[in-house]
Amino acid sequence: MLLLIGIGLNDPQDITLKGLEAVQETDYVYLENYTSKLQCSTGDLETFYKKKIILADREFVEDGSIILQQAQEKNVALLIIGDVFSATTHMSLYLQAREKNIAVKIVHNASILTAVGITGLQLYKFGKTTSIPFHDSSTPVQVIKANYPLHTLCLLDLDPKNNKYMEAQDALTMLIHKGLDPETKVIACAQLGSDSSVILYTEAKNVKPLGKFPQCIIVPGELHFMEKEALKTYTFN
Amino acid sequence: MLLLIGIGLNDPQDITLKGLEAVQETDYVYLENYTSKLQCSTGDLETFYKKKIILADREFVEDGSIILQQAQEKNVALLIIGDVFSATTHMSLYLQAREKNIAVKIVHNASILTAVGITGLQLYKFGKTTSIPFHDSSTPVQVIKANYPLHTLCLLDLDPKNNKYMEAQDALTMLIHKGLDPETKVIACAQLGSDSSVILYTEAKNVKPLGKFPQCIIVPGELHFMEKEALKTYTFN
To answer: B92, B110, B128 — which closes off a domain?
Structure first.
């Protein structure tokens, strides 16, 4: 059996009771460590889950052959930061398992895609999500403009293997270079979903390094009165 | 202190370890029972959480005065189906608490907004979310058309107090009446995020009653090759 288990956004206690029980009954536990960044170490997870964890990089998960072979005879868990299908990369493994008639169990969890609701922006009013890559790209600004009057969530690139995480300030410099008005009001966020999250509502040109990761940016579209009220509480001049 | 605790989509075991610990340390535990439907009773939650639960309807939560008064001196938890801010209705309580300098703790959880990822549709390609009300409305079809080529998630209305939940078939009849081509391929879903979920990919006119609740409909936009591969596994003729 293959178990795809979302472990949420922060630390060991973010797993669900269902997820923890499932993890503890498996023979192998992998952790994908390339789609986001937890606020704890793999060792913290191992201590709390009472299980040895094997780190799995993108190539290993997307190839999937070892995991699927093990899942034919044993219980194999893949722990996924956030929710199971928030990143597109895990769907391929799920489909391959089903094709091979391997039983699959999914345990959902919190995702950055809904944790952004704490900003006060209404989740149903978000358009397409865009990613801001380390290299130059015109796509994010195009998405932001096409989404308007809807809000745009911009996920910032990361390379955990090399301990490299993008700062909202650098992402915004790139967006401005590609045509975003520097006076556009944006929401720069770090460590959303944790008790130490940072949320700043200010003009794009004013965003300073937040120093905590992962980060994301939201470019709001048209704002409802209630959304404005919420954003006021995060205003930074 | 006010604790806003997402409890996920299904049953008592969907709460996170962090959420359970928080619930057990509170003096009053409310459960909002109007934004969705769990696959268990309030009694099941009480037994598992070892806490008495008070049901709270929309008026009680949106007014908020009793909860906020209690939260000035005691620990008060509001349990929310799905993630905390997936429904817009809980933001007002959060803002009121902050205005009154009441400490607030948020515990995130899984939401229908990302659980739909199991269909194989890529979550970043969804546009605005729409709700299909019991009464006639032209809005959902307008949203679907405006979102294209993005996907549209349609949440179906529900009235748990009167045990009334909308069938995807009835919602689609309304959409077709308002201009949706009856041959549009749609995904009709029931109890997503549970082990007993139903996912059917077929033409709008072909959807039959699913008999399980809650339900939602997704009207896909332009499909990527991988999305088509996933949807094939849910095809129903």
So the answer is: B110
Q: Which of residues 204-223 of B touch A (CB under 8 A)?
A: none
Q: What is the pLDDT of residues B88-136, one digit of tens each?
A: 789 999 999 999 999 999 999 999 999 999 999 999 999 999 999 999 9
Against a cut of 0.90, is the pTM above it?
Answer: yes
Are A120 and A228 in a shared domain? yes
Using an 8 Å CB-CB cutoff, list chain A residues near B85: 114, 117-118, 123
Question: A128: helix, coil or strand?
Answer: coil
Overall average pLDDT of the A157-172 stretch: 94
Q: Is residue A79 situated within a structural domain?
A: yes
Contact yes or no for A12 and B8 at CB 8 A: no
Q: Are residues A120 and A147 in the same domain?
A: yes
DSSP state of B237: -
Distance from CA of A209 to the nearest CA of B (A): 25
Per-residue pLDDT at A18: 97
Nearest chain A alpha carbon to B85: A117
Residue A102 lies in a domain: yes
Rg of chain B over Cα atoms, rounded to whole angstroms, equals 19
Distance from C-alpha of B72 to C-alpha of B93, rounded to nearest angstrom: 13
**Is residue A122 classed as helix, strand or coil in its secondary structure?**
coil
The residue range of the domain holding B152 is 113-232
Q: Are B88 and A122 within 8 A, CB to CB?
A: yes
Q: Tell me which of B110, B130, B151 is where a domain ends.
A: B110
Q: What is the pLDDT of residues A120-155, one digit of tens each?
A: 999 999 999 999 999 999 999 999 999 999 999 999
Q: Please judge whether B8 and A15 are an interchain contact, meaning their C-beta atoms are less than 8 angstroms apart.
A: no
